[in-house]
Structures are given as structure tokens and as C-alpha cells.
């Protein structure tokens, strides 16, 4: 029997609840984001009807097309790389950007949000393993480089995001998630970041339970929610 969208959504939520129970957390502290890059509209609509409220897209143009064809109540997060010249399109349609990998992007989003009279949430992306194929702030310089963007008017930095290096054993991911949590704690201990909620966007289909146990507040889940993609992705970043 083919697994339904409702079955997959229920399974993921059940696993989140179990991970929270193991770590003494309230499941309401974890936000589930459906990583929907390259997923067809019928699967996304079925996931929405099953209870999924937030979708995360990698590409701005693909997301804008989907937004016009899916329920307007859906909340959209950008979880893929962003060029500063796309800030004008992102600000009015997305609630949060998880992939702020340099101060230039933060400044562009802040300026556009102020111009449009709105406020956007953002996560600073950290390249935990220093991998050349990934983007993000370096862990060793994050605290100093993030200083100038700690109190922007249009962009509220709510926490950190990372895609850790691949590990053959899921349990080995725990150390990377702890490293991001420790960076978050160091950041939020600084006076200029005292009001930061300290969110942690980490964990995808294969490792989100460990991420939740280590404090994830936002998990980006793709395959476990939607099933395999109908077309192979051209880019493996942030695809859940």
C-alpha cells in the first residue's frame, strides 16, 4: 500500500514528539518546515491538507510560482541560497530566511524590509565543517562578524542555521548539532544579542530526531514528508 501524505505527516510528528520526550522538551517548541524543492504541487497540497503549515523552498523563482497556486494561508520560508539582488522579491512573500550567509545579504534584506514597511525573520547560516561546497559564516569569526547586524530595524535575526558535514552514522551528527547550539549560546550571551530568541534551524529527514534532542527549534524535512522527488535535484543544499 502506498503511504499517504497524512501517514507521512503523522509519522514525522510522532517522531518529533518521541524525540522531545527523550530530551525533556515540549513538542510545541519545534517548528516543522516541509522542504519542498522540486516537489509537485499535488504532493504539497496533500501535505497542507494533512496538517503541514510551513513550506521551505530553495529557489526564489520556483517558490513564487508555487505560492500563486497553493493556499494563501501557507507560511513560506526561504531555506536556499540568496543573492542580494533578489531581496526585493523575497521580503513581501516570505516570513523567514534561513540562509543568511554573509552580512551583505542581511543588509540587503533589512534595507528592503524597511523600504516595504515590514519585518522579516532571519537565521545566520554557519558553515560548521568549513566545507568548500557550503556557504555560511565561519564558526571562529561568527561572533565578531555578526556584531553589526544584531540590531537591524527590518530584519530580526532569530538564531542560527547549519547543514553539518555528512556522517555515516546518524549518532555522529550529535556533535555538530551541539556545536551549533554552543555557538548560539555564546552569541546570545553578548549584550547586543540579548533579545535574540536563540532559535536553531538544524536537522533534515535523516537526522532530525537527533537535532531535536540537541535543541533544534526548526527542522527542515523533505523526503520523510513528501516521499522521493519526482526529479533529481541539481543542488543538495538545504533540501531536507
> Domains counted in the coordinates: how many?
1
Measured between the Cα atoms of the first and last residue, the distance is: 24 Å
What order do the strands of the largest sheet run in, or round the barrel if closed? 7-6-5-4-3-2-1-8
Mean pLDDT: 94
Structure notes:
The C terminus is likely disordered. The chain is globular and about 50 Å long. It contains nine helices and eight strands. α3 links the parallel β2 and β3. The chain is an alpha/beta fold and 240 residues long. α1 packs across α2. The two termini are 24 Å apart. Helices cover 35% and strands 16% of the residues. Strands 7-6-5-4-3-2-1-8 form an eight-stranded parallel beta sheet. The protein has one domain: TIM Barrel, CATH 3.20.20.
Q: Which terms summarize this structure?
A:
alpha/beta; 35% helix; 8-stranded parallel beta sheet; 8 strands; globular; TIM Barrel
What's the arrangement of secondary structure elements?
Elements (H helix, E strand, L loop, with lengths): L4 H19 L7 E5 L5 H10 L3 E4 L2 H8 L7 E4 L8 H4 L5 E5 L2 H13 L4 E6 L16 H4 L9 E7 L12 H15 L10 E3 L6 H6 L4 E4 L1 H4 L14
Parallel strand pairs: 1-2, 1-8, 2-3, 3-4, 4-5, 5-6, 6-7
Helix pairs in contact: 1-2
Summarize the structure.
Helices cover 35% and strands 16% of the residues. With 240 residues, the protein is α/β, with parallel strands linked by helices.
Amino acid at each position: 500500500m502506498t503511504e499517504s501524505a497524512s501517514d507521512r505527516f503523522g509519522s514525522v510528528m510522532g517522531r518529533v514528539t518521541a524525540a522531545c520526550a527523550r530530551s525533556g522538551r515540549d513538542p510545541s517548541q519545534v517548528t516543522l518546515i516541509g522542504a519542498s524543492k522540486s516537489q509537485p504541487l499535488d504532493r504539497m497540497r496533500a501535505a497542507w491538507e494533512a496538517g503541514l503549515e510551513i513550506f521551505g523552498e530553495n529557489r526564489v523563482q520556483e517558490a513564487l510560482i508555487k505560492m500563486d497556486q497553493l493556499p494563501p494561508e501557507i507560511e513560506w520560508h526561504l531555506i536556499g541560497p540568496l543573492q542580494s539582488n533578489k531581496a526585493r522579491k523575497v521580503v513581501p512573500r516570505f516570513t523567514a530566511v534561513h540562509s543568511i550567509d554573509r552580512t551583505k545579504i542581511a543588509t540587503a534584506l533589512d534595507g528592503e524590509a524597511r523600504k516595504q514597511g515590514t519585518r522579516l525573520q532571519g537565521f545566520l547560516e554557519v558553515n560548521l565543517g568549513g566545507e568548500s561546497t557550503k556557504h555560511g559564516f565561519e564558526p571562529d569569526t561568527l561572533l565578531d562578524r555578526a556584531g553589526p547586524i544584531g540590531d537591524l530595524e527590518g530584519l530580526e535575526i532569530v538564531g542560527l542555521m547549519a547543514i553539518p558535514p555528512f556522517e555515516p552514522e546518524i549518532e555522529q551528527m550529535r556533535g555538530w548539532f551541539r556545536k551549533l547550539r554552543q555557538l548560539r549560546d555564546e552569541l546570545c550571551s553578548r549584550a547586543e544579542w540579548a533579545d535574540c530568541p536563540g532559535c536553531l534551524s538544524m536537522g533534515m529527514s535523516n537526522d532530525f530526531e537527533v537535532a531535536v534532542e540537541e535543541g533544534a527549534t526548526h527542522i527542515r524535512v523533505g523526503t520523510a514528508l513528501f516521499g522521493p522527488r519526482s526529479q533529481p535535484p541539481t543542488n543538495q543544499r538545504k533540501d531536507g
